[in-house]
Specification:
It contains eight helices and no strands. The protein is mainly alpha-helical and 235 residues long. The longest helix is centred in the middle third of the chain and has 83 residues, at 55-137. It starts with 23 loop residues before the first helix and ends in a 13-residue tail after the last helix. Mean pLDDT is 78; it is low at 13-17.
Length: 235
């Protein structure tokens, strides 16, 4: 029995899909690699003619094209995974860069703080050294006499005696007669202060000649009961 040529069912003109425009590169590749397929996709007549005359080669090209498409899909998936890996690495690199920036900022702040603390320490030491040197040369503290108000004149002898002792024991605590008079004036209140107030200027300076002059005013005002002579620096 003679074998009949297999028939291929193709859609009618109304059902056939519209041919899509293809780039020259795609057309060239199809023409070179799949010549029968390239002719068959031109129109229905070409497809029927190729199927009738070159069925075996046509089927072979279809299988080859199918395998190529599968390989292309596999390669596309590989490309997607590679892009995903690269994207993840880029994100990790960016995060690492941010962490390095943060660490650099912390180190910069730490360095700046250390420099500030060092400068503050040096400044404190430079200010403290002269004071400590002066303090090592001062005599030990001697108790201050109690304030004298003049309300009870009998307290004057004890006040002048303790004042004399204070000025002698801590003689190097004052560098001028103005400072010594200032110390004496700070111990006077009420009536006693009123007696010497005329010698206190608005700028804080004292116009009395010396400590002995202030003591003389006090003994005149409240009675010379002891004959104690007080001077700024006693020997």
């Amino acid at each position: 029995m003679a074998s009949s040529t297999p028939q291929i069912n193709t859609p009618t003109d109304s059902e056939a899909p519209r041919a899509r425009s293809r780039s020259p590169a795609v057309i060239k590749r199809l023409t070179h690699t799949y010549p029968f397929i390239n002719q068959a996709i031109q129109n229905e007549e070409s497809c029927r003619a190729i199927w009738a005359s070159h069925q075996t080669q046509f089927i072979y090209e279809i299988k080859a094209l199918s395998e190529a498409l599968i390989d292309s899909e596999t390669a596309n998936e590989e490309l997607k995974r590679s892009l995903s890996t690269l994207s993840q690495q880029a994100n990790e690199s960016e995060a690492g860069h941010g962490e390095l920036l943060s660490q650099n900022y912390d180190l910069t702040e730490t360095h700046a703080r250390v420099v500030r603390e060092k400068d503050a320490t040096i400044n404190a030491l430079s200010l403290r050294a002269p004071t400590e040197k002066i303090q090592t040369l001062r005599t030990p503290f001697h108790p201050d006499p109690l304030e004298f108000s003049g309300n009870d004149p009998k307290e004057l002898p004890a006040f002048l005696l303790k004042l004399q002792l204070k000025l002698r024991m801590n003689h190097d605590w004052w560098t001028s007669e103005q400072e010594r008079m200032g110390y004496v004036v700070s111990l006077l209140t009420s009536k006693a202060y009123a007696q010497i107030a005329h010698g206190i200027n608005e700028d804080g300076s004292i116009s009395h000649p010396n400590v002995q002059a202030i003591a003389s005013i006090l003994t005149t005002a409240f009675g010379d009961l002891t004959g104690i002579r007080v001077s700024g620096v006693t020997t």
